[in-house]
Amino acid sequence: MTTTPTQVPPPTTVPEVLHKARRRGVGRSDRFAALGFLAPNLLGFACFTILPIGASLVLSFFEWPLIGEATFTGLQNFITLFTADPVFWQVVGNTFYFVGVYVVLNLIVALSLALWLTSNVRWKGFLRFVFFLPVVSPIVANAVVWRLLYNQDDGLIAWFFQTFTGTSGPNWLGTSEWAMPAVIIMSVWAGFGYNMIIFIAGIEGIQKTLYEAAEIDGAGWWRRLRSITLPMLTPSVFFATVMTVISSLQVFAQPFILTGGGPGSSTTTLVFYLYQQGFQGYEMGYASSIAWSLFLLIMVITFVQFRSQKRWVHYS
Question: Would you say the pTM of this structure is higher than 0.90?
Answer without folding.
Answer: no
